[in-house]
Amino acid sequence: MGYNTRRATLKIFDEFHQRTSAYALNPVEFSVLSLIGHNANVSPSQLCTELSLLPPNLTKILQKLSNKHLIQRYRPDSDKRAIYLKLSDTGKQKLEQLEVVVSKLERDMASKLTDKQLELLMELLQRIYS
Amino acid sequence: MGYNTRRATLKIFDEFHQRTSAYALNPVEFSVLSLIGHNANVSPSQLCTELSLLPPNLTKILQKLSNKHLIQRYRPDSDKRAIYLKLSDTGKQKLEQLEVVVSKLERDMASKLTDKQLELLMELLQRIYS
DNA sequence: TATTGTTATACTCTATAACTATA
DNA sequence: TATAGTTATAGAGTATAACAATA
Q1: Burial status of residue B75 (CB atoms within 10 A of its CB: 0-12, 13-18, 19 or more)
Q2: Percent residues over pLDDT 70 in chain B
């Protein structure tokens, strides 16, 4: 099973790189961008939990996204240790574009599956890791 | 989809490490050992193709397996460039033990799935990457 | 000249420890 | 004393180029 999930991941990630090379973001970085986009004011620690990333590694991803002016970080008055994350206008624009590419990618990678089968595949995978 | 396959892979590999730490082999190294075990006289280039590994990286894996006295390498008379791989007696023994652990691991990781669903999951994944 | 496999090496990804600032 | 996040760094995994030996 691990063999099959890994082979599928490699294939999908390879195609992801080919189709999104103009954005210079890898799949995990895209996930971070997407989660921030759909959960404004999310914190780094929440992202670490949700994506199984270690804090030091997430910090580097956030620095990269920040250097590309895709996200903004600010410290809330309620807790000056914490950081809230949200997308910049550029970030929102890029995310929207990327989501179109990625959703087409997903459909193409599953070209041998019906919509129902793809949905089922997702559910079975989630039952494995959750 | 890539997100879900990756999360599942991470979970499975993590459990793999916990249950097989005594053998000091990672999942890919186990796959190499297993493929050699079930395909005597397979060549490194065949393994590279089958497992999507690059030759220099497979070489390192084979050196590790060889240092552990799990495999034997020999050059056939028919082509002195090529290498044939097979398991040593120790290798056969270790593989047999590992396969018991791994097949139990597989069943446990899919505890929320019926046998039929697990079988289906495999087939859907293979349709993605093949 | 092409193929098989190896060596050396660089790059990316992931993991650990120590640190700053705030609570 | 504990928590959020950062920095520095080490280690594992993956990639590219150059090479030796054989076909």
Answers
A1: exposed
A2: 100
CA of B115 to C1' of C11 (A): 42
Please state whether strand C lies within 7 Å of residue B41 at its CB atom. Answer: no
User: For the domain A2-129, what is the CATH code?
Assistant: 1.10.10.10
State the pTM of this model. Answer: 0.94
User: How far, in Å, are A19, A35, A108, B28, B121 from residue A14 at the CA level?
Assistant: 9, 22, 13, 18, 21
B99 touches chain A (CB under 8 A): no
- Say if CB B32 and CB B58 are below 8 A apart: yes
Interchain proximity B10–A112, CB inside 8 Å: no
Q: What is the crossing angle of helices A27-38 and A2-20, to 10°?
A: 80
The predicted pLDDT at position B116 comes to 97
Tens digit of pLDDT at every position of chain A (130 positions): 999 999 999 999 999 999 999 999 999 999 999 999 999 999 999 999 999 999 999 999 999 999 999 999 999 999 999 999 999 999 999 999 999 999 999 999 999 999 999 999 999 999 999 8
Q: Residue A46: which nucleotide is closest by CA–C1'? A: D4
B80 Cβ contacts chain D strand, under 7 Å: yes
B129 touches chain A (CB under 8 A): yes
CA closest to C16 C1', residue: A56
